Amino acid sequence: MTERRTAPRVEPPKPLSARVKTSLVARVVDMSTKGVQLELTTSLRPEVPCDLRFQLEDGEIIVHGVVRRCRAWGFGLNEKDQKVLMYRAGVEFVEAAPAALAKMIASILGIRSGAKESGEGAEGEGGQPKSRGGPVRIHVRSADVRVTPKPPREKR
C-alpha cells in the first residue's frame, strides 16, 4: 500500500499524553505537522472541533483541531487499572502555523533545532509543504451521500 500522507508521522520516543477538551486524557500514538493520532477511553464525534493540550518540558502547548475519525481499537487498562474499550482518534490540526508544529514535534522528539530527522524534508520554503504532484484523491463516505431516485423516463 502506498503512503498517501503529505507529512511524515513520528512516534514519541517516550510516552506522551494530551488532554482533549481540557478533561479527556489521551495517549499520543503518532503525530505529524498536519495532525495527531490519539488513543483514549472515550469516543470522539467526527467533524467536531476540539482543543488539544500537550504538556512539554518548555511548557504547555494548545493546538486547535478537528476530529476526523474515531474508531474502537481494542481493550486496554484505564487509570484505575480497569479493562475498558479503547478508541483511536485522528485529529487534524487547524489554525496552527506549520513552523510552530514542527518546533513542537522537534521538542517532543528531542531534536536540536539544526538537526533534521530522517524521513523529514517534506517542507519547502517558508515551512510550507512541497507539492507532490500527481492525481488528487477525494474520499467520500457513504453516509454523506444522498441518493435521489431518477424520475421515470417518458415513452416516445
Order of helices and strands: EEEEEEH
Strand order across the largest sheet: 1-2-3-6-5-4
Supply the CATH architecture of the domain at 7-109.
Beta Barrel
> Which structural class best describes the helix and strand composition?
mainly beta
In percent terms, what proportion of residues is strand?
Answer: 35-45%
Termini separation: 51 Å
| Strand tally | 6
The CATH homologous superfamily name of the domain at 7-109 equals predicted glycosyltransferase like domains
Main sheet makeup:
6 strands, antiparallel, barrel
Q: Determine and state the CATH class of the domain at 7-109.
A: Mainly Beta
Low-confidence stretches: 113-134
Q: Write the CATH fold name of the domain at 7-109.
A: Thrombin, subunit H
Please state the average pLDDT score.
75
Shape: extended
Radius of gyration: 20 Å
Helix content: under 10%
What's the number of helices? 1
